[in-house]
Design a protein that fits this description.
The chain is built from 12 helices and 12 strands.
């Protein structure tokens, strides 16, 4: 690996100075590596897992602004730390990951693209993602984006404010690890929305319509939470087994729903 890396040419590095330049350089995403906060790409570079031909740097592209209130407009290069200061629950809690160094550098766009902590919260809030890539720019529901994020450059998010929200997670002691399970719930004008993440390493978060239907039918939180096993397919990975996730998920969903009731 080291010999091939030494023989490889130095990558072309482009520091985009505007959103338009970032979009133009990214193109259809082929052959380009994007660096926002660098928390994902830098370890891969350090260990020789990747050696890109072209690198697009987003730090100066003007994608780190937060504006508006309802919806909140969040640039794709906003850090998790900045997001946690202004976002509604459950998004603010999801952004407060334990590792303060990562929290201060990692970007919203990168986190959502790789299946990070923010996905369940954005789903229950009904967020939309504006991105660029093959076919040009598009604005789509967060669920559609996370189903096929690759080849897209995240530009911004539209985040509606809920009436109330709650976020619960199960993590290992070490702050650098990904969460084992995440649960986000939000009360919006059309009812309670529920989503879970951490079903496997880098797996996308999913909404939980069975839980939502049980709640709308009058089921109490713990009874409704038991329905989550109808909505998810946990997998084994280095953090936890599918069996463990299946057992713990109903407990965490119930806990999140109870916290939501307290916040209403």
């Amino acid at each position: 690996m080291l010999a091939s890396r030494l023989a490889a040419p130095e990558p072309e590095v482009v520091v985009a100075r505007s959103e338009a330049e970032a979009i133009a350089v990214f193109g259809d995403g082929a052959g380009i590596t994007v660096i926002g906060g660098g928390t994902i790409v830098t370890p891969l570079l350090t260990h020789g897992a990747i050696w890109p031909e072209r690198v697009l740097m987003l730090q100066a592209a003007g994608l780190d602004d937060i504006s508006g209130r309802d919806p909140l407009e969040v640039g794709g290069a906003v850090t998790l730390a900045a997001l946690a200061e202004v976002a509604p629950e459950p998004l603010a809690a999801a952004a407060r990951i334990p590792d303060y160094e990562i929290r201060g550098q990692a970007t919203v766009g990168g986190n959502v693209t790789v299946g990070g902590d923010l996905q369940p919260a954005l789903i229950v809030l009904g967020a939309r993602v504006r991105s660029a890539g093959a076919g040009g720019e598009r604005l789509e529901p967060i669920e559609d984006f996370i189903a096929a994020p690759w080849g897209r450059l995240v530009l911004s998010f539209e985040v509606p404010r809920p009436l109330a929200g709650a976020f619960v997670q199960q993590r290992r002691r070490h702050s650098h690890t990904h969460p084992v399970i995440t649960v986000a719930v939000a009360l919006r004008g059309d009812g309670v929305h529920v989503a879970v993440g951490g079903l496997a390493e880098h797996a996308p978060a999913v909404a939980c319509p069975s839980v939502e239907r049980a709640l709308s039918g009058g089921a109490p939180p713990r009874e409704a939470a038991a329905s989550v096993v109808e909505d998810v397919r946990p997998e084994d990975d280095p953090l936890a087994s599918a069996w463990y996730r299946s057992r713990v998920l109903p407990v965490l969903v119930a806990r999140a729903l109870e916290q939501l009731e307290e916040a209403r």
